[in-house]
Amino acid sequence: MSPIRLIILLVAAAAAVGAALLVRDMSSQPSPQTNTGKPVEIVREVEVSSTKVLVSRSDKRIGSLLTPEDFQWSDWPEKAVHGGYFTQESDPGAIEQLSGSVVKTALLAGEPIVQQKIVKKGETGFMAALLRPGMRAISVEISPETASAGFILPDDRVDVILTYEIEVLTERGPTDTTLTKTVIENARVLAIDQIFGEMDGASVLTGSTATLELEPQQAELLAHSGRLGRISLALRSVADANENDGATIAATGLLTGDSGAGNRVKVFKNGSVGGGS
């Protein structure tokens, strides 16, 4: 065999081997995936520094009295912390300090607590923030004997009882008669100035004034009743607080001269009631 033929055969053999290797590599490569048209979502976790901020645990309306259960510490992005927020790092005792405050501007659940939205006890405007819209705060003098021996506390419900005297005409002539009448029912107690005192040898909470939440005309009635006779407060059961949808009821007829006896004067004839006027 001539050298030229031998060279040609070797080149042809090498080309055949190369072609076989190329076909094998192409068959071993994965087939390209078809595009389904759905966007590919890439999730990246980014670590953000946070701090504990004091927030409202639930929605709170204007006038709500805040308790420790109304607050909670919540994670808040450190870069978004406002200078007016209470943080656990700088104000660890904030819950105890703010308990007993009144909501001045409505709060939403999870909203950070700021000074501008609450009024703390002793601050100007505390009582005004505690009042519901359209209501008035009026105080009445009390004693342990006229206020359930000191067991009445703020946010309790009470009845206001008036004891007074009227003059009636009998067969022997005019005489004084004592009347007792419930003039206001289901009134809310806003505050009571309680101090520790002693009654019958035992230590009790006593006070000299109670502040009630009443409608304007009901407040007038309470002031008028205080001039007519002695005022007593009767503590109501918690189960009765929603009676009449929680509304306060008042016998405002006293303001127009109704004595509580139907504007009648008793007249006795021959030992029995003979009529009235």
UniProtKB/TrEMBL annotation:
Q: Which SMART domains match?
A: SAF
Show the InterPro entries listed in the entry: Pilus_assmbl_Flp-typ_CpaB, RcpC_dom, SAF
Q: Where is the SAF domain?
A: 51-119
The protein depicted here goes by the name Flp pilus assembly protein CpaB
Source species of the chain = Henriciella mobilis
Recite the lineage of the species.
Bacteria, Pseudomonadati, Pseudomonadota, Alphaproteobacteria, Hyphomonadales
